[in-house]
Amino acid sequence: MRTPQQYLRGELVVVIDVAELERAAVFWSEVLGYVREGQSEIYLSLVPADGAGVEILLQRVTDTKLGKNRLHLDLRTADLDAEVARVLALGARRLTEEPVNEAGWVWHVLADPDGNEFCVLQPPSHRG
To answer: Could you say which DSSP state residue 98 is in?
Structure first.
């Protein structure tokens, strides 16, 4: 049973613009462990496998990505190196050669196959 992520007056959905729905669906479903839920020629919905949480709606667009995203996903993990390696193997591209370290948080900036930036972060509580 699907339980959408709520906000004050409805459901929260994150939309990612992509050039190719199938390529993006394979990438993001593998990265997030999400499953497909409905598709049209322009949209493809990905939802958590257990049904609870934020829906990711992939939207096919014809325009080319220009500049840095003003909104991005953060993937917080206990093992930064392992998670970055896993996501790179799925088709991401690393945008930071060295991890960024700020206030105990350590992260890399990566890009999905469409060039959309996202971060993989290790919180201070998981640092040795």
So the answer is: S
